[in-house]
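Figure 6 in text form: structure in, sequence out.
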């Protein structure tokens, strides 16, 4: 299995001289199974440069998995050039949206209205299919399987685990640690804490032993308190999870859009210093546009 990062930025594309080393595109990860099946995790603006490379391998057959429908994970989708070319086929997977009461098929329809985009979905030439996923549903794509897990975010967010011939990668999309909404001593605290602990244990089990964990690390522990409830994790939480679950490699992503490359490296170095590496710890690295991992 091969993994390539096309977008690593959170919230909004952030191009410019200060982000040129790690990249300014929003989330998009290309996964290739050993047999060459193309699985695309999220469709942030990073899907646009990916799309251009795919023009060299027509016809394209792609399987897109959307973690959730916040703009930074879908706003590249109308610019996925293979949609415009006959003979290509794209299957888009994602969760049911409880707010609109629609399945994942709304994802293009909403973005491709004349108010926002000059071309209607009906004018696209590729064969496009949609699959709204049940929680925990397993999708088989050739030699790979993709399994979703419900994570914690202001909308439904599916983390996806891709397995192929004994190798595995888990991508969180956006995820915030579950936390107790009650104060200690309040009625309801203990019961709620049980639920929080159970959800975390379930996530630990799904992540356990994966070769690569690609995780939302938008904030430092110091930044987190004022961003609590926004739906994102910290470096420290990700490292603790990776250690508990015996992950081999942790890739920190969804970089804060205001963080320059220098600042990102400074923050990351401080996190690594403070976490006091232990023997057997996972390798920890920052995601970067163009970075490739070969499993
Ligand atoms: Zn996001
Ligand atoms: Zn989000």
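Output sequence:
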């Amino acid at each position: 299995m091969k993994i390539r990062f096309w977008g690593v930025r959170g919230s909004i594309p952030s191009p410019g001289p200060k982000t040129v080393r790690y990249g300014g595109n929003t989330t998009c990860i290309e996964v290739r199974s050993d047999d060459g099946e193309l699985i695309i995790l999220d469709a942030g603006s990073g899907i646009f440069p990916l799309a251009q490379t795919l023009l060299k391998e027509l016809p394209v057959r792609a399987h897109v998995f959307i973690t959730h429908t916040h703009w930074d994970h879908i706003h590249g989708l109308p610019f996925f050039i293979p949609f415009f070319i006959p003979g290509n086929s794209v299957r888009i997977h994602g969760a049911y949206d409880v707010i609109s009461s629609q399945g994942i098929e709304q994802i293009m329809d909403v973005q491709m209205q004349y108010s926002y985009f000059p071309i209607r979905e009906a004018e696209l030439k590729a064969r496009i299919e949609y699959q709204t996923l049940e929680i925990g549903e397993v999708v088989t794509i050739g030699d790979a399987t993709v399994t979703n897990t419900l994570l914690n975010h202001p909308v439904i967010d599916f983390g996806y685990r891709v397995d192929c011939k004994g190798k595995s990668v888990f991508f969180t999309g956006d995820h915030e640690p579950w936390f107790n909404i009650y104060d200690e001593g309040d009625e309801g605290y203990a019961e709620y804490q049980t639920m929080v602990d159970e959800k975390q244990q379930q996530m630990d089990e799904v992540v356990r032993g994966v070769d690569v964990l690609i995780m939302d690390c938008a904030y430092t522990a110091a930044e987190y308190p004022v961003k609590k409830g926004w739906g994102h994790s910290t470096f420290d939480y990700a490292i603790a999870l990776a250690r508990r679950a015996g992950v081999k490699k942790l890739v920190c992503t969804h970089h804060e859009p205001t963080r320059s490359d220098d600042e990102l490296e400074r923050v990351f170095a401080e996190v690594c210093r403070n976490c006091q590496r232990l023997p057997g710890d996972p390798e920890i690295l920052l995601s970067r546009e163009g970075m490739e991992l070969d499993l």
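Caption detail: The chain has a mean pLDDT of 97.
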